[in-house]
# Entry
Amino acid sequence: MLIDTHGHVNFNAFKEDAKKVLENTLKNNIWVIMPGSQLSTSERAVRIAEEYKEGVYAAVGIHPIHLGKRRVDSLEVESEESSEESWRTFETRAEEFDLESYRLLAKSKKTVAIGEVGLDYYYQPKGKARRSEMKVNQLKILQQQVELALELNLPVIFHCRVAHDDLIAFIGDIQKQHKGVLRGVIHSYTGTKEQADKFMELGMYIGLNGLIFKDVAALPDPIEVISHISLERIVLETDSPYLTPPQSLTERNEPLNVRYVAERVAEIKKFRVEEIAKATTQNAKNLFSL
Ligand SMILES: [Zn+2]
# Structure
């Protein structure tokens, strides 16, 4: 058995066949957690998860990129003007963060985490003042969402892009204030092994996905980082529909492909794939209380 701890089957890319994809996933003994990225995708995650007794779960939250005016892609949400093209990017407005709506969704029995939430400094606005305003706003909204997680005793799925040291400082402060009770995962890990150590010292898990195959600047040295992270702290994910592993038969990533991530982690850490499956499944069950 495997658990895809981060598969967006709630996104527009699965609009036509989410049910079919999830049934096929469950049939292959794979469970999935679907994180929201804003209110509409969080609602959809909860609505889908509530249709299943076991094996399909939701996380709710607002992703930092939705706090500003950004380009998003049609794999995530539908464009307001309809388009025949299957994939394109378009401008969206900043979304207001409405804590009460998220609190309501977080109280569903099928919501197992707050996420994905965090810091994303990849797209920088022009000008020093606007850049610092962006960071202050991201931290403010993150703080509110992490407090919601603490209030409801839920773990947090953290998104972190080009912001690792700020996130380490942020989680460090939270753990100090709350006696280390915050649980969470740094999803789609792209930091260094030293930063991984700091996250693990703060009690966090590390989420690995298709980035471990790709020779991209995102994860500078996957072999070094993965060899270094202890197996007790690894959870697997796909980040479907993105980050498709090279072995995938489909261009769109799907939760089923989490098995390729497991195989690659086994290869790098020199374990049998069954051992990786067993350990990471147990880690995910512990973290998300499944
Ligand atoms: Zn994601």
Residues 2-288 form a domain with the TIM Barrel fold (CATH 3.20.20.140). Residues 6, 8, 35, 116, 239 surround zinc ion (CB under 6 Å). The chain has one domain: 2-288.
